[in-house]
Amino acid sequence: MLFPELKFSKVHLNYLALAVPFFLTFIGLEYVVARKKGKAYFQFNDSVSNLSVGIAERLLDTFTVGLFYFVYDYLYRHFAIFDIKASVLLWVALLICTDFVWYWYHRLAHEVTLFWCAHVVHHQSEEFNYTVSARITVFQAFVRTGFWAVLPVIGFPPAMITSMLLVHGLYPFFIHTRTIGKLGILEYILVTPSHHRVHHASNPQYLDKNYGDVFIIWDKLFGTFVKEEEEPVYGLTKPLESNSFLWQHFHFILEMFYTARRVNGWKNKLRVIFGRPDNVDPAARPALERQFLLRNPAISGTAKLYRYVLWQMTAVLILLFSFLLLEYYAPVFIQVCVTLLILLTLINCGAIMEQQQWVFYLEYARYLVFCFAGYYCWPHPAFLCAAAIIMVAAFYFQSRLKEHYLRLVYGRAA
Q: CA-to-CA distance for 125 and 234, rounded, in angstroms?
């Protein structure tokens, strides 16, 4: 059996999976409110790209959260300065400390090139809605853990820290919106949607401002606060102009190494990596785009393309929710297969929106992952024979299959 330990009288579910329909419900409500106001706050390609990044991060969290807890636990047991016990006042103190550490993580993520490589993905969207809050990568999770490692050293127990990070991570979702205006007296205390719109703006007067996550006091204290006055223009100062899942994650890492390779001396190379992102050569991206980002401008977006991507994203979200809900029962091999299948699908969706022909060959990879998972669940020679026959037939009829596939996706053969 695939889930041999699953007995419905004693089901041990991961209820954190309910975050998926919870967030999707609020995204849907925001979309309805925006439509009623006559505002075009959502673009299909942009929203799919945003959700793709978030799906990947939540998926990979399954494998990293235990590691992060181990780090907190190890530091707490070996280096804790104080022996802090849970109480109301200490929970408040932990919230303040967590938000203070976040401010400096967030600020340095904008001011240090190496950290910006992880954080830049969050700022690529040229829209501003709840889907943008999903733009968190697993790279960011590792960098943030390095900053939050100070909390167990102070003496906060790992269980308190992980609980607080769940709460602290929920609040920012609700400030990624244009449907909520200014909030009166709360503007002086909390980070509001108005404050965070400034942070995501590329207007010159708004750059590198409003780093706070829950409390706005840190920005006011350290001189990085700006009020929202002029209408924000969202995205990077130099827009990425790509829906590619892989390019969005890795473009700035490549730009950093491209620049570091071309400057002379270790001092200058280290300045590129650990200095400000401004030190990265502006010519790096066009050069790398010519090398790695092959667009197909001959095909325009079609209803078939959007339907196909929407169908895939719907399937991925259902699979993600099921996977997270039952993760305690899924064997490690099945977890790896589901992870690969979802990641390949996200890469596929991005490539389709970039209108690439090579998306057809990704289907072979998805088929192989499906076969591995299927054989794990039913290790019978008949399954292998059937899988092999299908693969041989696919290779034999590849030209015809590719033509039909591209017609299905793009509305015509590319």
A: 7
Structure tokens at 52: 């793709």
Cα separation of 13 and 67, whole Å? 21
CA distance 202 to 381: 58
Q: How far apart are CA 314 and CA 316, in angstroms?
A: 5
Average pLDDT over residues 218-239: 94
pLDDT digits (tens, 9 = 90+) for 349-400: 998 888 777 888 889 999 999 999 999 988 988 988 999 999 999 888 888 8
Question: Cα angle vertex 370, ends 320, 142, to 5°?
Answer: 45
- Report DSSP state, residue 234: B
pLDDT > 70 in the chain, percent: 94
CA distance linking residue 79 with residue 73, whole number of Å: 10
Neighbour-count burial for 61-95, b at 16+ CB within 10 Å, e otherwise: bbeeeeebeebbbebbeeebeeebeeeeebeeebe
Average pLDDT over residues 179-192: 94
**147, two tokens:** 């900053």
**Cβ atoms 299, 353 nearer than 8 A:** no
| Alpha carbon distance 349, 313 (integer Å) | 8
Q: Give the dihedral of Cα atoms 184, 190, 196, 198; nearest 10 deg.
A: 60
How far from chain centre, in Å, is Cα 413?
32
Q: Checking phi first, is residue 223 left (phi over 0); if not, alpha (psi -120 to 50) or beta?
A: left
pTM confidence score: 0.89
Maximum distance among all Cα pairs of the chain, rounded to whole angstroms: 69
